[in-house]
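Running low. Invent one:
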Amino acid sequence: MKTYIFDLYGTLIDVHTELYNHKIWKALSDMYACYGAIYTPEQFKQAYLKFNEEEWKRVETLHPDTYIDIQFKNVFKRLYDEAPLHAEVLSIQDKETWLLFIETEFRRLTRIRCKPYPNTIKTLQALKKQGHQIILLSNAQRSFALAEMGICGLLPYFDHMYISADYGIRKPEKAFMQKVLDDHHLNVRDCLMIGNEVGSDMQVAAACGVSGILLNTAHRKEKEIQKELETLQQEYPDFQYRIVTSGDILEILGE
C-alpha cells in the first residue's frame, strides 16, 4: 500500500474566484446589515481588503520566518465588530456558527468556477480500489475546501484531510507535511506528493524526503517547470520527481 498525498486547488479541482464585482460587495453588505452592521458596498469592500491584509501581517509578525496561514473568520468578525454604524436588527445567537455561514457565503458569492479536472474522480476511485491511502494536504480554509470538495464529489475518497488554516501554517512549510507523516507513522519511501506548484507542493515534498509528481494543469512550458525543479533539486539533491506534462491526473496510476 502506498500513501498518495494530494494538493487540492489546481491539482484535483479547477476553481476560479472573483473579488472585483460590485454585486459581491452589495450582497455581503446587505447580509451584514441584516445583523445590524451597516456598510455601503464600497465601504465593505475596502474594509475587507484592509482587514485581510492586516490579519496576514499580524500573524506573520507573531511567527516570523514561517509560511503562515490565517483564519478568515477573524477578518469577518472584525468586519462585524468595526462596522461604521451598528443598528438593532437581528441578533446573532451563536457567533461561531454565524461566522462559518458568512465564510461559506463569501466563497459562494466570489466563486466563478468549481469543477474537478477530467479523470480526477476516475483516478481517486482506482487508487481506492487498489487499496492505497489518500490524504489531502491543502492550503485553504476548511469551510471553502469541504464545500468545494462536496460540490465536486471528492469527499468519499479521502482517508484524512489536512487544511492549512486549521494549523496556521501552509505549504511549503516543512512542519505541515511532517505532521501528516508523523500522525500516521508513514515511511517516506511509500509516499507520493501530487500537486501543481513547484514552490509549494514539490518544495514541501522535497524538504520531507517524499517523491513528487507535478501535474501541469496550467499548461506551462515544460522548460520553465524543469528549470524550477532543477533549482529545487540543488537544495535537495535526493529529491525524486516526475512532470506530467499533459496535466492528466490519470497518468499517476501505476506509480
